[in-house]
């Protein structure tokens, strides 16, 4: 086993300015992105170089459960990939025994690439569905027999048929929403007959009558059974079923995978959590990474509860908080922190206050426009200025490093037109996948043929990779200069130009590589759906932008009714909309513009208001009550005056957190105990018994019920904490200043194991040990 060098700080690490970009990819070069194709570390210790102290703690904490609370831009992927690589390179983890799971093929592909570059090839990095499907395909013949049923990639057609059989007419939007309800039901393990009750209890706004949706759901399931097919959610359900029913198969999986890492843990559904538990068994070799403030997919069944309750399930877990933001300027980070300071709810109680590690940049720009077309035109004009070269008086920002983000996809049309009019290239994220575009598929076939020596130009056989690629793609429309205007011709050129740039980067970072190596790289990227950078402004919804970043971000359409969206009714739905805006803000590295239109169309009444989430943050708006984030991790604790005297005064408390698992407590009884009911108790039974006898004697003297002295929960909390000073006793909920003055000396003596004189001997005494029949707390409302 390698020596633990977590405190070693060699030259070139974070303390000497050597922290590499937290979010740059080492597998997929992004032009001149720092860290792309960096040299493989020479040994395990070198894997730790360049990590900050908290990232280093993540990387070296390889035993037991670990929970990483990672703010936006803090290098969470870097931390967990270096953790895996350090364990592999140090000989503490076998590559084939590690399973890293995340939520998108792109993220899984990037993780595999980083691990390969760090010398930890062979580690499995997959999505939940991909990992489950592989296991299902392998074990199905043994568990069920035959082949796994065919997977239906688009369930919407089956849902439409199910609705028709139920004599329900659904328009296009309703069909999409009902399909979403079926997906939500399956990941929350809700069967059709229970859907109406569970949906009502969950506060879901069903797109149709709940009973109607339940019938469509049941018919949909029957159609699948009749045709012998399964859907995406069935992959998880069936894998869970196999592992639950066949202990021999579950044991085989657990022998294979002995160490688990879960990224974006705030997004796990109950079904994914159940699968993870079955993979783990009774072990705790698990590292999870997440940020409750980036929970924006609750409509799909995702919940941050598993992240927030992690220490309840794993009491001995190590918790590491990453708050150093390497992505955004202090100005952007300040706005992001300001948004969260106004948040409410359980996720907000665990929010992290980010600390920018970058130099200062421009302040965020707030822009109000008369109408939506004017907003789109103004945005396009500002983007045009940004992409103009510096020598021509512009910002010199590449178009590929600019994004326009909006709440719903329907907003994109205005911006597509405005950018086209301004001669600015753009790409729609969420549209056709890069590697599925006809010109990209064709280019791949041509490059593969050239790599096999079938190039049409024999003179290129000995040429370098970029020259070979330019020659091949030049036969299909690529030219050194882009075509004028926009449209299909420009889109085709942009796709081919992205492949040319990738070839340049690949050749520059892999001396001696061949065209065959590049083709293999393209195949791996296609499998991971990790497209190269297209030189155009990105248009995307806020949801689609999660996990991405740009030098300049334009957040548009920020009006009430859009952010938060009109159908967000409950407090939790409103808070999720706030988190969605937070995600948008934290996508920006340097430039950030937030805009809104006062009316929809030119000449319309200027009745719209900017989003409430910017109140107190944008210039000229009225501040709202904000709560301190409380430094690293945002934990707020009650405090008491120093010293051990009876005059200690408790100050106003912030949120009360469980002293075992750290979860914010809302139940009054749990708040008194300072722990969740289910968390382990450290009760000193002897102290508890002495306190109960003493309380009964005091209650008899007062002629009042025992709870007028201290409630059962308060007494239990005292016996668990066994305070030694008045200040420690004052921190326990239910011990007010008057009770501290009256009973404090007795309680501390009993906790210390000292005998007390008879209460009768002290009757009439104004000291801490006596009691008056006219006790001012005899009408206490403490229960």
UniProtKB/TrEMBL annotation:
It comes from the Bacteria. Residues 757-783 are annotated as: Disordered. GO terms for molecular function: 3'-5' DNA helicase activity; ATP binding; ATP hydrolysis activity; DNA binding. GO terms for biological process: recombinational repair. InterPro entries: DExx_box_DNA_helicase_dom_sf, DNA_helicase_UvrD-like_C, DNA_helicase_UvrD/REP, HRDC-like_sf, HRDC_dom, HRDC_dom_sf, P-loop_NTPase, UvrD-like_ATP-bd. Its EC number is 5.6.2.4. Keywords: ATP-binding, Helicase, Hydrolase, Isomerase, Nucleotide-binding. Residues 681-761 form the HRDC domain. Residues 330-590 form the UvrD-like helicase C-terminal domain. ATP binds at residues 70-77. Residues 49-329 form the UvrD-like helicase ATP-binding domain. It catalyses: ATP + H2O = ADP + phosphate + H(+); Couples ATP hydrolysis with the unwinding of duplex DNA by translocating in the 3'-5' direction. GO terms for cellular component: cytosol; DNA helicase complex. It is an enzyme of class 5 (isomerase). Belongs to the helicase family. UvrD subfamily. This is DNA 3'-5' helicase.
């Amino acid at each position: 086993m390698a020596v633990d060098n977590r405190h070693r700080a060699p030259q070139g690490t974070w303390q000497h300015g050597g922290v590499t970009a937290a979010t740059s990819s080492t597998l997929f070069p992004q032009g001149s992105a720092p860290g792309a194709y960096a040299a493989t570390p020479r040994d395990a210790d070198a894997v730790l170089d360049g990590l900050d102290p908290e990232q280093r703690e993540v990387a070296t904490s390889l035993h037991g459960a670990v929970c990483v609370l990672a703010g936006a831009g803090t290098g969470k992927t870097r931390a967990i990939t270096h953790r895996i690589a350090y364990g592999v390179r140090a000989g503490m983890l076998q590559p084939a025994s590690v399973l890293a799971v995340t939520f998108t093929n792109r993220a899984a592909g990037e993780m595999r690439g980083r691990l390969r570059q760090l010398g930890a090839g062979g580690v499995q990095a997959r999505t939940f569905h991909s990992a489950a499907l592989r296991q299902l395909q392998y074990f199905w013949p043994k568990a069920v027999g035959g082949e796994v049923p065919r997977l239906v990639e688009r369930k919407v057609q089956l849902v439409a048929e199910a609705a028709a059989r139920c004599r329900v007419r659904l328009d296009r939007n309703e069909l999409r929403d009902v399909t979403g309800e079926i997906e939500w039901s399956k990941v929350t393990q809700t069967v059709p007959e229970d859907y109406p009750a569970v949906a009502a209890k969950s506060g879901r706004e069903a797109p149709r009558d709940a009973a109607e949706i339940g019938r469509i759901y049941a018919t949909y399931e029957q159609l699948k059974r009749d045709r012998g097919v399964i859907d995406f959610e069935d992959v998880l359900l069936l894998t869970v079923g196999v592992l639950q029913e066949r202990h021999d198969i579950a044991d085989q999986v657990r022998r294979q995978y002995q160490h688990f890492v879960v990224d974006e843990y705030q997004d796990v559904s109950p079904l994914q959590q159940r699968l993870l538990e079955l993979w783990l068994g009774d072990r705790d070799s698990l590292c999870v990474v997440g940020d409750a403030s980036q929970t924006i997919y609750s409509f799909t069944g995702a919940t941050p509860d598993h992240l927030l309750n992690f220490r309840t399930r794993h009491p001995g877990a190590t918790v590491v908080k990453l708050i150093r933001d390497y992505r955004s300027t202090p100005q952007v980070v300040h706005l992001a922190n300001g948004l969260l300071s106004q948040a409410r709810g359980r996720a907000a109680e665990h929010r992290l206050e980010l600390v920018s590690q970058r130099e200062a940049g421009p302040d965020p720009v707030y822009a109000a426009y008369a109408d939506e077309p004017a907003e789109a035109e103004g945005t396009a004009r500002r983007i045009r200025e940004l992409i103009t070269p510096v020598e021509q008086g512009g910002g010199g920002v590449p178009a590929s490093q600019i994004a326009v983000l909006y709440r719903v996809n329907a907003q994109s049309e205005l911006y597509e037109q405005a950018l086209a009019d301004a001669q600015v290239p753009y790409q729609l994220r969420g549209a056709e996948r890069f590697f599925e575009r006809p010109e990209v598929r064709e280019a791949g076939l041509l490059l593969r043929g050239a790599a096999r020596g079938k190039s049409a130009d024999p003179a290129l056989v000995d040429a370098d990779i970029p020259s070979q690629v330019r020659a091949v793609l030049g036969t299909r429309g690529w030219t050194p200069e882009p075509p004028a205007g926009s449209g299909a011709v420009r889109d085709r050129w942009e796709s081919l130009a992205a492949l040319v740039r990738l070839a340049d980067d690949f050749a520059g970072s892999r001396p001696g590589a061949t065209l065959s190596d590049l083709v293999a790289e393209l195949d791996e990227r296609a499998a991971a759906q990790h497209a190269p950078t297209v030189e155009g402004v990105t248009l995307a919804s806020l949801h689609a932008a999660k996990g991405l970043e740009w030098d300049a971000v334009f957040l548009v359409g920020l009006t009430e009714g859009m952010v938060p969206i009109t159908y967000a009714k409950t407090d939790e739905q409103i808070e999720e909309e706030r988190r969605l805006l937070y995600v948008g803000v934290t996508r920006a590295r340097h430039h950030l513009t937030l805009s809104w239109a006062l009316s929809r169309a030119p000449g319309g009444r200027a009745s719209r208001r900017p989003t409430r989430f910017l109140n107190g943050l944008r210039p000229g708006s009225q501040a709202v009550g904000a709560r301190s984030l409380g430094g690293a991790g945002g934990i707020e604790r009650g405090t008491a005056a120093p010293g051990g005297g009876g005059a200690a005064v408790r100050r106003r408390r912030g949120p009360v957190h469980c002293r075992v698992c750290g979860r914010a407590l809302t139940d009054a009884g749990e708040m008194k105990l300072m722990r969740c009911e289910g968390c382990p108790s450290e009760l000193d039974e002897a102290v508890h018994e002495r306190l109960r006898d003493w309380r009964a004697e005091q209650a008899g003297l007062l002629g009042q019920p025992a709870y007028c002295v201290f409630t059962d929960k308060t007494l239990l909390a005292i016996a668990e904490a066994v305070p030694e000073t008045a200040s420690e006793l004052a921190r326990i909920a239910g011990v007010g200043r008057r009770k501290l003055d009256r009973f404090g000396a007795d309680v501390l003596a009993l906790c210390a194991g000292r005998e007390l004189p008879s209460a009768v001997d002290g009757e009439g005494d104004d000291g801490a040990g006596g009691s008056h029949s006219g006790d001012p707390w005899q009408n206490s409302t403490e229960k």
